[in-house]
Design goal:
- The chain has about 90 residues and is mainly β.
- Helix content is about 5%, strand content about 50%.
- The protein is built from one helix and five strands, in the order H-E-E-E-E-E.
- The strands form two sheets. Strands 1-2-5 form a three-stranded antiparallel beta sheet, with no helix packed on it.
């Protein structure tokens, strides 16, 4: 049997620096707002989450399976790298 406490590692600290600026102005009678966004300025590789699935299948002599089968499967999702966006409304 797998010791789940030792099989699962914890996430490192999550650090992210974002910068957003907005400029509002008028052209004639129309109000315009321009946006400039910098997401994850330091381009740090952050792990957003990890998911582990533990599967335990007991032995079943009727099917010829005599050994216990257990597995741990994992998935890791990372956040975006440095990203920029520009917009207006």
């Amino acid at each position: 049997m797998i010791d789940c406490v030792n099989a699962i590692s914890y996430l490192e600290d999550y650090h992210r620096v974002d910068f957003v600026t907005t400029y509002a102005f008028k052209i004639g009678k129309t109000n315009i707002q321009a946006n400039l966004n910098f997401f994850n300025l330091l381009a740090r590789k952050n792990v957003k989450y990890r998911q582990y699935i533990y599967s335990y299948v007991p032995s079943n002599p009727r099917n010829g399976q005599t050994a216990v089968q257990s597995t741990v499967q994992g998935l890791e999702l990372q956040s975006l790298d440095f990203t920029t966006s520009v917009g207006w409304c």
